[in-house]
Amino acid sequence: xxxxxxxxxxxxxxxxxxxxxxxxxxxxxxxxxxxxxxxxxxxxxxxxxxxxxxxxxxxxxxxxxxxxxxxxxxxxxxxxxxxxxxxxxxxxxxxxxxxxxxxxxxxxxxxxxxxxxxxxxxxxxxxxxxxxxxxxxxxxxxxxxxxxxxxxx
Length: 153
What we know:
The protein is α+β, with helices and mostly antiparallel strands. It contains 4 helices and 6 strands, in the order αββαβαβββα. The protein has helices at 7-19, 30-40, 63-79, 145-150; strands at 24-25, 28-29, 45-49, 87-98, 101-110, 115-123. The termini are far apart.
């Protein structure tokens, strides 16, 4: 039988996947894309809701990334036999704390009022394809350059 405190492990696992160098957009580290978007738009933070969104919330930045992590949340919860109705809130928040640093936080809230949070500082530089090489190790895209470019103007 699953216990709600296992949601902390789900938080940790989601965070590890999110900050991993394997979290790529078009072959480049996704966190570099996020840092570039935040700095270009003068924004301090961005959020990825991980529960199904309402129609009015359908304009999510990096929608493919959010969808990937929604599926990861479902997979990780199912692995631990955690019923979906136990999770009433789930999000990944990205906060730019310096030009080369992001604070990434995963938050899960359970139906019994417990809240679980896991965070990590990630040293990142702005994504610049002229200074980077794309990874050629497969199509593990968690967003697309199209969605990033659509919101960059």
